[in-house]
Amino acid sequence: MNRLLLATALLASVSCGSTAGPAPDTAAMSAESKGAELFNANCALCHGRKGDLGMNGAKDLGLSTLTRAEMIAMVTNGKGAMMPYKNVLTPKQIEAVVDHVRTLRKAG
Ligand code: HEC
């Protein structure tokens, strides 16, 4: 039993040590998965999980030609039937959600 605990502790410390290198990558990935989470919670009801649901006149995000900065402004301040998110999400969360929207773009 004790030996098993020790082995587990050793394994944990080894795998911790090996993540020291690609730390920025890991951070970027968790920001992206956070963006996806925020998108599914706040945006998917109109835009759909893939961005192409089009409820309430929402545009297909996969076809959007807006730049990243324009999307951030739009999500922050809202437009038409889309409400502003500046009191709902932090600027960092808005960036994360917009970065997720940009992964929904269709190729081409
Ligand atoms: C209540 C429904 C609704 C919700 C919720 C919603 N949107 Fe929208 N969204 C719209 C509508 C409607 C438009 C079109 C607005 C217009 O152009 O008049 C739009 C447009 C957009 C556009 C611009 C697309 C383009 O090319 O013009 C982006 C980007 C966008 N939404 C992102 C988001 C994000 C990110 C969220 C969540 C934080 C979100 N939306 C939540 C309804 C919604």
Short précis:
With 108 residues, the chain is mainly α. It has helices at residues 2-18, 23-42, 44-47, 68-77, 91-103. α2 (23-42) packs across α5 (91-103) and α4 (68-77) crosses α5 (91-103).
Strand % is under 5%
What is the gyration radius calculated from CA atoms? 19 Å
Query: Which H/E pattern describes the elements?
Result: HHHHH
Major sheet description:
none
What is the fold named in CATH at topology level?
A: Cytochrome Bc1 Complex, Chain D, domain 2
> What is the helical fraction, as a range of percent?
55-70%
CATH superfamily membership, which one?
Answer: Cytochrome c-like domain
Heteromolecules bound: heme C
How many structural domains does the protein architecture include?
Answer: 1
In CATH, what is the class? Answer: Mainly Alpha
Task: Please count the beta strands (DSSP E, at least 2 residues each).
Answer: 0
Mean pLDDT: 82
Distance between the termini: 57 Å
Approximate shape: globular
Contiguous helical run count: 5
Q: What is the level-2 CATH architecture name?
A: Orthogonal Bundle
